[in-house]
Design goal:
This protein has helices at residues 4-17, 25-44, 72-79, 127-134, 152-160, 194-203, 219-227, 248-256, 270-280, 306-313, 316-319; strands at 60-66, 97-103, 106-112, 139-145, 163-165, 172-176, 182-186, 209-213, 231-233, 235-240, 260-261, 283-288, 296-301, 321-327, 336-338, 349-354. It is α/β, with parallel strands linked by helices and 356 residues long. The strands form four sheets. A six-stranded mixed β-sheet has the order 2-3-1-4-10-11, with helices on one face.
């Protein structure tokens, strides 16, 4: 019997050779589902995963991702108050280096990661440990340069690691049951018929369940959902070393991916990059007003609630919380009294009252 790696290679080859159309859609869907399960089984047999996770600090964590020698460390040093070794050779950075960028009131943790190589998702070049940290990021900055501007190989590495860049998690819901078979409910029109969906679910050993689909999805989206280990993270594309000049074909790639064009050496474009980072993290500004104190500005992620704000101030605020008073866009009326679950909005003024 072929081992897992042989089975994976055989299925990948069959998918490559099979032309996708309505007649082969069902077959390809089953192959992709089986491939996903085999890859999960392969990963579960491996021990360890490289470097331990990095503790999040500040308002958000951002990972600098790129191939070796694209200038990530120089860029990192310009953005933060930390120092990462810089050199004109591959793999200058061998460990994950954290630094902090303070910008527009936000404290943004930025990680300088070792350069990725092809096959990183399967462990080459310590890739699994690095990618496990990337999976925990709030934002990914993909750094390329004028010599190797195409980000697609990096996007593929992230995809192979279960990272879905600049995509929203589709609204799919699964309720497993003891009996009754598979029941599929769709609130939107999709191209997948129920037979294909049911077959893919059975490939994942799901035989009794209600599946509710509320977004347009394809086979890959369904497999991602059933795999259960995908992460959806926003990303920014950066083209470095523009001080050396940009040829038209490179400029075309930069425009295709809406790249922020920078020179980490001379600082050109860094303000635009900082703005792009801040905007991509979807921050809002609120104002804290202690019962007997001065107004203080605070930057939080959009859709944050009072509980998240309390945790950001001090862990004891949750334990001793009584209520909060809100004035601003999220308040139904002036001085509205709210609990921990209340979601704040841009410009809110918040006063938190604690138990005595």
């Amino acid at each position: 019997m072929a081992n897992i790696e042989d089975q994976i290679r055989e299925i990948e080859e069959e998918i490559r050779k099979t032309k996708y159309n309505k007649a082969t859609e069902h077959h390809i869907g089953l192959l992709k589902a089986k491939l996903a399960r085999l890859k999960e089984a392969k990963e579960s047999t491996k021990k360890g995963g490289g470097q331990a996770g990095v503790k999040k600090t500040g308002n958000a964590m951002v990972s600098l991702v790129g191939f070796p020698s694209v200038g990530k460390s120089t860029l990192f040093n310009k953005l933060t108050n930390a120092k990462s070794e810089v050199g004109d050779y591959d793999f200058t950075t061998v460990n994950i280096i954290p630094g902090m960028m303070v910008y527009r009131g936000a404290k943004i943790q930025i990680l300088d990661l070792p350069g990725l190589i092809e096959g990183a998702a399967t462990g080459k070049g310590r890739g699994k440990g690095v990618l496990s940290v990337v999976r925990n990021s709030d934002l990914i900055i993909i750094v390329t340069d004028i010599n190797f501007p195409d980000p697609e190989p990096l996007i593929k590495i992230l995809h192979d690691a279960g990272i879905r860049l600049n995509r929203r998690r589709p609204r799919i819901f699964l309720v497993k049951k003891d009996r009754g078979g598979i029941n599929i409910q769709k609130t939107v029109n999709i191209d997948l018929d129920d037979n294909i969906i049911s077959s893919i679910m059975r490939e994942f050993k799901i035989v009794n369940a209600d599946l509710i689909i509320r977004d347009k999805i394809d086979i890959d989206d369904l497999i991602d959902f059933l795999s259960g280990n995908r992460v959806y993270i926003p990303g920014i594309f950066v083209l470095n070393k523009i001080d050396q000049g940009i040829e038209k074909n490179v400029l075309d790639i930069a425009e295709k991916y809406s790249m922020v064009k920078v020179s980490a050496i001379n600082g050109e474009g860094l303000d635009s990059l900082k703005d792009a980072i801040f905007d991509a993290l979807d921050f809002i500004t609120v104002y804290l007003k202690p019962p007997n104190g001065k107004l203080e500005q605070m930057v939080v992620k959009r859709y944050s609630n009072i509980e998240m704000i309390c945790r950001a101030i001090h862990k004891d605020f949750i334990k001793n919380f009584r209520y909060a008073v809100i004035n601003g866009p999220s308040a139904k009326y002036p001085n509205q009294k709210v609990g921990l679950e209340h979601v704040v909005e841009e410009g809110d003024t918040i006063t938190i009252y604690l138990k005595k």
